[in-house]
Amino acid sequence: MNGLHIHLSDMGTGITFADQGPSSETPAITKITIESLIQANGDTFADVGSVLKHHRKTIEDFCWAMDGENDNRDIYDIQYPQLKKLTLNKSGWWIPRNAPLLEELTLSSRTINNHPAVLDTIPPSLKTLELKLNEVPELVDTSSIKQYLLRFAQHSHLHELVIISPTMDNIFNVVDAICHLKQLQRFAIIITMRPDSSQQDRFLDQLARGCTNLSCLEIYCLYKGLSTHSINTLKQLGNLKQCSFAIDPTSDDGIWHALKTFPQLKCIRIYPAMPSHRMGIRRLKEKRPDMTVYLDQTFTRF
Asked: Model's pTM, two decimal places?
């Protein structure tokens, strides 16, 4: 893969080319990152548009992190027939509608706040959706996210969802929509402020009833450990094979017993690594030799 990074700042424009794959006689640009620390003007949009037009047929991975005033309409009509992975921060709201083969999409709260029209397009082949709701400015109203997720309930392609949120409140506002995504196989929830145990338990209760096809679940709630109740609740997920979660150092033996009697679970990642966990893990491995157990210092995704 050959990459192009365009960086705009008060100091000017920097362009970096990276050869990230096997060499060829006619190397094509397949990855582009456009990053701006300043508000772009019409001339900047025109220059960027010229670059994108030149490489549009080969771009597979695109990160757009630029915003500003643009009166050049041409950039909105550029088509990306090979684009598979797209990350939007600040703007770029029109790009999803011009990428018919898009499979991975990352949206930030900043993009959604500044340009809610980005939620108007449901990419027909999307497999992975990541929502970064923790970026400034934070979303005040999550109802648009709820409606956006509900529209994916009719699309069987979406198999993976990642939500990063500052609070569990945002998650509760959209949990009904998440539970309508019966096709989900992988779900990661990352909360950057520590919730209380009851919030975490209630959310996982709803998730286990709604997303019954999950095979991988990754949970980060600022090192808030799962309760024994939550582990037992997740046993309802008959296809769950992988799970990443925290265990509190003060947890009793109940949580280890719950894991021993979780037959479909084959691989777990536990964090943070603490001496108090080692005895429980040793006994778990003795009881469940078929289960792979990783002890990580920090939250690590599969």
From this structure: 0.94
